[in-house]
Every structure is written in structure tokens, then in C-alpha cells.
Design goal:
The structure is a homodimer. The first copy, chain A, is of the alpha/beta class and about 250 residues long. Chain A folds into 2 domains: about 15-140, Tetrapyrrole methylase, N-terminal domain (Cobalt-precorrin-4 Transmethylase, domain 1); about 145-245, 2-Layer Sandwich (Methyltransferase, Cobalt-precorrin-4 Transmethylase, Domain 2). Chain A has helices at about 30-40, 55-60, 80-100, 120-130, 145-150, 175-180, 195-200, and strands spanning about 15-20, 40-45, 70-75, 105-110, 135-140, 160-165, 185, 210-215, 220-225, 240-245. In chain A, β6, α6 (about 175-180) and β7 (about 185) form a beta-alpha-beta unit. The first copy, chain A, is elongated. The relative contact order of chain A is 0.16. At the A-B interface, α1, β5, α5, β6 and α6 of A face α1, β5, α5, β6 and α6 of B. β6 of chain A pairs antiparallel with β6 of chain B.
């Protein structure tokens, strides 16, 4: 009810809706996202790898019906800017083919649609290639909120300062975060876990640190104290919550 | 489906469910929160002030039915610790009366239930007074995610660092946040807006700063550039998104 178009849509064009579908439990999707998802003729999502379903696809599959066109868009796991840019263009043109014919496309993004989401690249590329495209975003529950809920702890209270960072490229920033924030969330921590553990050990924060794998999914795992876990083997989509000053 | 009890519940006790009901648009509640809300014999929420409905109450009112007991719990707007502690105790005992009789209570919290939420105080006080109480949290969409969606911008991408802080008591921390983070979200900014504006001006960030009032509500207001707005009169629940290094 509070939607507003970014650009005035021409009558014959469909709209691209980016919807956050939540952290994993299919019930943690919003009513609005579900309504858009069920009513769209075309549903898009990041393609899975190695023959497996993608994560967003997995979340939404209970809600889809066989009449809907399903578009698995390829977003390669690489940091090569040229490969990525090309993939975003290809995905945008696939979406555009439908929008042009007046069909709405709903793109499902795990978690929230504005929070480290593939949707950003799709939307920005589509807007560049076809400025007349109408694009709307519907927010969803992101993983740090899901992690706090399953841990049974508050993420933040009162005047607490919260820092969120993807650990993959910025272990160096962790020290600054720990000195500034009351609560720190580290995303994508798996590849740098041993270094992160050492920093937390130095600051005597291990017993105030939590690791969560696949929050709200059937394979969810929780580690509520990292003191004796210097070498956890975490999957890619794991996060740490560190209560620096509880 | 991934719920787990914090304490083994005795069979005769009801459970306190804290549910985040999203930022304002009643459609931005999750399926799970709605299911819990509709099926609970008792629905609780923070009481409104001055005869008005509370904000969570406002969001959930389209979903309630007349048979449900509605508990408006008083959480005074004060920083007096003694008054607050007493209010939390009174609220917890009101909830406990129902739990004791085997009735589930769903407490609705605007936004998310772990993110600067009144639910934390209710849950912690209840747990202290009645350790046998069973408490569960269901996450919701928090306001920064809603703000990004209605602004049509990503909140964060790639390796960006995000800092979130309530401005009310910590304007002094803003400078540090600006030096550390790529994106800064300031909550509850109304009372300190002129000082915040000066800091953003000094850092030449005003044209990369957004203010959002009541995101996703009918009275939503967006300011997409703060350069010419040194004296905005914002309501209490407004937030700023600052793209420090876009």
C-alpha cells in the first residue's frame, strides 16, 4: 500500500519486484512477498550450483505453482569484475524479455533484498540498460535478526552500537569494530575463522561470542560459546554474533 | 519448524512468543508471526500513550479477532531505571497470569523482536521472576531494511561495513562510525538532528544522506538529499541512512 514507482511505468511494461524471502524457514517470508510471489507469472532466483537448488529457490519452492515460469539466473561465484558484469547483463536481459511483454517478474532473494543481496546488481544493471524499467523492493528478514531469535538473545538494546561486516575481506577491520561497537556481527566468516578466533581470544570475548549456521533451517547449528572451538568448520553462510559490551 | 525451547516446558504452562511484526505496513509481517498471532488466545503489545493505539497494536489490528484477549502492557517512556524495572515486573506478571493457566501469549513488537525491542526487557524479566517460563522469538523486518527498500537503494553490498547506532545518546560516536563504516544508519535521530546535520556537512556527506519517516506506513516521508535541510522536524521514529563510501 505504500509502494511508489521509481520511474513512471509505461502501461505495457511489467514490473521487476525484488523480494526478500527471509533467512531460511519458508514461514519467515512476509505476507507481501508471498502475495507477489504467488501472483507473478514469472519467478526468478539465483541459480544453484553443481545441480543443487539455489538457496532462495529452496525457500520459495513450497509456495510456487506449476504454471509459473521459473527463471534460474546465473550469478557466478567469482570476484572477476568482467565475468560478473557480463552475467548481470545476461540476467537483466532475461528479465527484460518478460517485462517487455507486460509480465511482472518477482526476483526472490534470500534474507533481505537490500542487505548484501544479488538483487542490487540485477536492479542496477537493468536500470542502466533499460531506464524505463519499473523496479520495486520488498524487504525481508535478514540473517542477523534470525540468528538472534534462534539464540534467544537480544541483538541490540537501548543505546548499543551495532557493527556488521563481512569477514571475508576485512579481518583487519574487526579490531576497529570491537573498539567502536557494543555488538558485532561477522558475516561469511568460514574462511577466516581461525584468525577471527585469535582476535576474539585476545580480547577475551570468546565466551560472549556465538556462531550460527543456517539459522531457522532444518540443518541449523548453534555454538553458544566459542572458547573451546578454535577450529570450527563452518559453512559459507555462517555468522558470528559478538557481544562486546553486553 | 526450527523452534527449540529454551527451557523444558511443563505441560500445563503456556509459552510467551515474542514476534516482530515488521516496520509498519501490515503486509510486512511474516507468515509465522501471523500464524502465531491469529492462533494465540492472548495477544500483548506495548500500550499506546495519550489515548492513542500503540505502534505494534496499530500494525496487528487488521489481523486480530474479537475473541482474543488483548493485553496492553505499559512500558513508560522514561530513563528512570527504577520506574522501568517496576513496569517490566508488572508486565511480566500480567503475562505470567496467562501462561500459568496454560494460555500462550504472543507479544507483538514493531520491527524485529531482537533489534532495540521492548520484548527483550519483558522476556528477561519474566525469565528472572519465573525461570520455568518458556519463551520463543520470531524475527521480523527491521526499519533499516524497510527504509532501504522504500528508498530504492541497497543498504549494503559486497564487503561494505555497516554501523547502526541510536543517535539520541551518542552523537559523539557518529564521527567514529563515519570513519569506520561504509554505510551508517542513525536511529531515533529527531532530537539531535541539527548536530548530526553539522557533522554530515563537515564530512560532505549530506548529498549521500537520506532521512525516512515511518517507512512503509501511509504517512511515510522520504528526504533523499539533506543538503538544504539543516532543520528538519522529524518524528521520534525516523532514521537516517548515510552512504559514506557508496
Amino acid at each position: 500500500m505504500t509502494d511508489s514507482k521509481k520511474t513512471a511505468p509505461s502501461l505495457s511494461l511489467g514490473t521487476l519486484y525484488g523480494v526478500g524471502v527471509g533467512p531460511g524457514d519458508p514461514e519467515l517470508i512476509t505476507i507481501k512477498a508471498l502475495r507477489l510471489l504467488k501472483s507473478a507469472p514469472v519467478v526468478a532466483f539465483p541459480a544453484g550450483v553443481q545441480g543443487r537448488k539455489g538457496r532462495a529457490q529452496d525457500i520459495i519452492s513450497p509456495w510456487l505453482n506449476p504454471d509459473q515460469v521459473q527463471l534460474a539466473l546465473k550469478f557466478p561465484y567469482t570476484e572477476d569484475r568482467q565475468i560478473l558484469t557480463e552475467a548481470w547483463k545476461v540476467a537483466s536481459e532475461e528479465v527484460w524479455l518478460h517485462l517487455q511483454k507486460g509480465r511482472d517478474v518477482v526476483f526472490a532473494s534470500e534474507g533481505d533484498v537490500s542487505f548484501y543481496s544479488t538483487f542490487t546488481y540485477l536492479a542496477q544493471t537493468l536500470q542502466q540498460l533499460h531506464p524505463e524499467a519499473s523496479i520495486q523492493a520488498t524487504p525481508g528478514v535478514c540473517s542477523p535478526l534470525a540468528a538472534a531469535a534462534v539464540l534467544g538473545i537480544p541483538l541490540t538494546i537501548q543505546a548499543q552500537r551495532l557493527a556488521i561486516l563481512p569477514a571475508l575481506q576485512s579481518v583487519a577491520h574487526l579490531e576497529t569494530a570491537l573498539s567502536w561497537a557494543d555488538v558485532v556481527v561477522l558475516l561469511k566468516v568460514s574462511s577466516v575463522y581461525p584468525q577471527v578466533w585469535s582476535v576474539l581470544d585476545k580480547h577475551q570475548l570468546l565466551d560472549h561470542s556465538y556462531a550460527v549456521e543456517n539459522a531457522t533451517k532444518p540443518d541449523q547449528v548453534i555454538y553458544a560459546d566459542l572458547s573451546k572451538r578454535p577450529r570450527l568448520q563452518l559453512p559459507y553462510f555462517s555468522l558470528l554474533v559478538i557481544q562486546v559490551r553486553p
